[in-house]
């Protein structure tokens, strides 16, 4: 669907440019966009490499394990249907730790592995389980202490104070995460209530009414 939307936008742009006799502007915009993309990528590399290195140092020093222990009670509350010792828990904790540091690129592989592990617990392989929906909501809204990528972009465009967004980013992501958790709890309860009840197990003790019918 996304590919179709982008293709439609490109074709519409070509159509309007051709109708106005300014097709050369499309070519110019394409090259300028490619140049800007490369420039931004090079600007991001240094900052991302730095924070990925810090992430490795935090992992080797045991800091990530401490963060994981700190987040463990929260993760257990958010994912009550996932066993504590299941491999998915480790990937979920790593994903949340990376998101806290604003390392979306480092968090993505951990999120994918967590989803794969959660799929092994999913009784219905054709639909996302509640735990998978929770992970997706938290990964999208995740609280960010240091918005590394945004800081790098602002530095690349010569911002006077690239770190000014730290406070507002923290507030915005905190509100988004709280909203995601509230909605996740609400939909979980709705899912539990709408789930069909299991039929009574036959073969148990016979009630007095049943014995009278049999007699």
TrEMBL record:
UniProt keyword annotations, A-Z: Membrane, Transmembrane, Transmembrane helix
Provenance organism: Paenibacillus cineris
Stretches for region Disordered: 194-215
Segments passing through the bilayer: 37-55, 133-153, 165-187
Polar residues compositional bias, start-end: 206-215
Keyword Transmembrane appears in the UniProt entry: yes
Lineage: Bacteria, Bacillati, Bacillota, Bacilli, Bacillales
Signal peptide: none
Domain Nucleoside transporter/FeoB GTPase Gate as annotated: residue spans: 42-150
Name of this chain's protein: Spore maturation protein A
């Amino acid at each position: 669907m996304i590919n179709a939307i982008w293709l439609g936008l490109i074709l519409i742009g070509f159509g309007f440019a051709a109708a106005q006799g300014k097709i050369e502007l499309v070519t110019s915009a394409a090259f300028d966009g490619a140049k800007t993309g490369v420039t931004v990528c090079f600007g991001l590399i240094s900052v991302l490499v730095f924070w990925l290195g810090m992430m490795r140092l935090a992992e080797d020093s045991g800091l990530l394990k401490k963060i994981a222990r700190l987040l463990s009670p929260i993760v257990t509350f958010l994912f009550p249907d996932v066993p504590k010792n299941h491999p998915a828990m480790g990937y979920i904790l790593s994903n949340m730790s990376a998101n806290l540091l604003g390392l979306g690129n480092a968090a993505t592989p951990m999120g994918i592995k967590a989803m794969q592990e959660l799929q092994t617990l999913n009784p219905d392989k054709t639909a996302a389980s509640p735990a998978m929906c929770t992970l997706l909501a938290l990964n999208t809204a995740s609280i960010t202490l240091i918005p590394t990528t945004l800081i790098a972009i602002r530095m690349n465009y010569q911002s006077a104070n690239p770190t000014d967004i730290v406070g507002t980013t923290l507030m915005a992501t905190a509100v988004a995460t709280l909203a995601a958790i509230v909605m996740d709890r609400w939909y979980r309860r709705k899912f539990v209530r709408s789930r069909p009840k299991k039929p009574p197990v036959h073969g148990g003790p016979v009630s007095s009414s049943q014995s009278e019918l049999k007699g």
